[in-house]
UniProtKB/TrEMBL annotation, chains A, B:
<dbReference type="InterPro" id="IPR028082">
    <property type="entry name" value="Peripla_BP_I"/>
</dbReference>
<protein>
    <submittedName>
        <fullName>LacI family DNA-binding transcriptional regulator</fullName>
    </submittedName>
</protein>
<keyword id="KW-0804">Transcription</keyword>
<dbReference type="InterPro" id="IPR010982">
    <property type="entry name" value="Lambda_DNA-bd_dom_sf"/>
</dbReference>
<dbReference type="Pfam" id="PF13377">
    <property type="entry name" value="Peripla_BP_3"/>
</dbReference>
<feature type="domain" description="HTH lacI-type">
    <location>
        <begin position="1"/>
        <end position="55"/>
    </location>
</feature>
<dbReference type="InterPro" id="IPR000843">
    <property type="entry name" value="HTH_LacI"/>
</dbReference>
<keyword id="KW-0805">Transcription regulation</keyword>
<keyword id="KW-0238">DNA-binding</keyword>
<dbReference type="InterPro" id="IPR046335">
    <property type="entry name" value="LacI/GalR-like_sensor"/>
</dbReference>
<dbReference type="Pfam" id="PF00356">
    <property type="entry name" value="LacI"/>
</dbReference>
<dbReference type="GO" id="GO:0003677">
    <property type="term" value="F:DNA binding"/>
</dbReference>
Length: 334, 334
DNA sequence: TTGAAAGCGGTACCAG
DNA sequence: CTGGTACCGCTTTCAA
């Protein structure tokens, strides 16, 4: 059942059917009704490929993230999908992992699908301090379709970003711990992504501003896997700290598990702060104080902006910084 | 840059370019090389819409789930995407929620995108005991594209399913608790989906087989949200139980939180078993014994089977039942 | 307000 | 092995 069939049955031309389908004003009410009835009766749906061929668009957004099994990414994609759906866009998904090559291939693939725009979720896609050539493929992609980065940051004509203010959040958390008399704040991290770096800088700045030294042995890097991280911490005999600031909730929970093994009481002897306000933070015991990076709001901004750009609006801000919120629970005494 | 340009530049016909692009054997090595060079030099990519128009396929799989922010779904989608990607298929995602209307609309939408197949993840899409008319839209969809249900079950010519053996898992867990002397096993659930029903039936059967009564006041339904569930349990003054079997890890964690408030020790006074083996189960304290429904394997089966069907293979099993695994941790003494 | 016809960029059949 | 050409189904311009 195609447009020709509908035209034949309703006794009009395919041009008219096309106009009816696309809600053109230049059709008499009578004709419209007649055609509509036939369309309903026959259950006709326009062929999306043919339409795509003509319009060079299928109203589809490409979404990339390193790993959708991660709660943070999953929440982001959930919001993106929902918001785009309301604007009539569909989402095609790509989980790229963290290697440059895979990321590059995925971008190429999505682009070859003639997506209307590309959204990349996660701080693995670039930011301050990342080498130019590492992100060249993204700049390249932006020549073919607008690119929106969530929690990454690259400057470019057709590139838009929304970033959590991780620096400030880390600064605040660290300062709060200092105000509570903490002397040795362990910085737990699992990668050197843009956002991890921002957090580390906030942490360092807060220490400096308080006149504290930035100690290398207080920066602890490990995989974001609870048992693995806990065991690695336990293996380091000389690890001494009175508080923990982790760049991921999973790492913070690992610190909690570490405390449990060591018989250290939280928050009395040890304060712990996590990041992302994930379900983990209310599952653990005691429940975790965690920074919420407002992923929902970031996704909202992303969709609004992308849609504006696709509508030809040129007054879209290339970077939006969203403040974080510190959700206080039981692992801190502030 | 289209196929005509490439043909002109390489001095051949578009038919030959098409053959080269599609790896046809009937091209001389010399011609192939010549054309390939031009393609490389010009950075030509075939227009996917035009190709789709001709072949009526874009090698795209539609994936639906109620909510991708849920860890179980996210893991499923992650595996599906990865496996399909290896076969050269892309995934377009739809988060449908749980209402019939939304689910139906999403199916319609995905179908209108001419997806090659539809994969539906979750037990919300139908199974034993669900009314025919509730799943009619899925049977209908299967006329247009093969449908694969993960953890739902509907019989139909073009419908394929993989199901966790939730009944047996629930039976085993309940029996194990009984063997440990538990007399009042609380069944915590949050919905009446197919899988929840299977679990409940396994629970009931184990009780009956052990000569225990199936008590209505030992079935507790609440939203799958840790604090909400905990508070609801606390609000019921006469709730008495010595063990908990929850259909979701979140609910099991809620039970742990309940025990914490009540000062009940786990597992000494109370045994708790969750479901899905999610990150929650290792985040909580003590760590949760949980049923792993092998989502990874189910997704693997789904992809293998779908690909077979799409290749015209007709000997594909319409239903595969995957055994679960009980992952023993600290909230039980078995 | 309507229709005829020219694309859009491929695929695949049929000749040669 | 290669080229010519008829589709695929829709959008849009141009005339009427």
């Amino acid at each position: 059942m195609n447009i020709y069939d509908i035209a034949r049955i309703s006794g009009v031309s395919i041009a008219t059917v096309s106009r009816v389908v696309n809600g053109s004003q230049k059709v008499s009410e009578k004709t419209r009704q007649k055609v509509m009835d036939v369309i309903k009766a026959e259950g006709y749906t326009p062929n999306i490929f043919a339409r795509g061929l003509g319009l060079d668009s299928m109203k589809t957004i490409g979404i990339m993230c390193p790993n959708i099994a991660d709660n943070y990414m999953a929440r982001a994609i959930s919001h993106l999908e929902q918001n785009f759906h309301e604007y009539g866009y569909d989402c095609i998904l790509g989980c790229s992992g963290h290697t440059r090559e895979a990321k590059e291939n995925y971008v190429k693939l999505l682009l070859s699908k003639r997506i209307d725009a590309l959204v990349m979720v996660g701080s693995t896609y670039g930011g301050n301090g990342v080498e130019e050539k590492e992100t060249a493929y993204i700049k390249n992609a932006s020549k073919q379709a607008p690119v929106f980065l969530i929690n990454s940051w690259i400057e470019g004509e057709n590139i838009y970003c929304s970033n959590a203010d991780d620096f400030s959040a880390a600064y605040e958390v660290t300062s709060a711990l200092i105000r509570r008399g903490k002397k040795r704040i362990l910085f737990l991290y699992d990668s050197e992504t843009f956002s991890a770096k921002q957090k580390m800088e906030g942490y360092e700045r807060a220490l400096s501003d308080a006149g504290y030294p930035v100690l290398g042995d207080l920066k602890f890097r490990t995989k974001n896997e609870i048992h693995h991280a806990r065991d690695l911490m336990l293996a380091y005999k000389n690890l001494e700290f009175d508080s923990v600031f982790a760049v991921e909730d999973g790492l913070a929970v690992a610190a909690l598990k570490y405390a449990k093994v060591k018989g250290i009481s939280v928050p009395e002897e040890l304060s712990v702060v996590g990041y992302n306000n994930s379900p983990l933070s209310v599952s653990c015991e005691p429940e975790l104080t965690s920074v919420d990076s407002r992923i929902e709001q970031q996704c909202y901004i992303a969709v609004e902006n992308i849609v504006k750009v696709l509508e030809g609006n040129t007054e879209v801000s290339h970077r939006t910084i969203v403040p974080c919120e510190i959700v206080k629970r039981c692992t801190t005494d502030f």
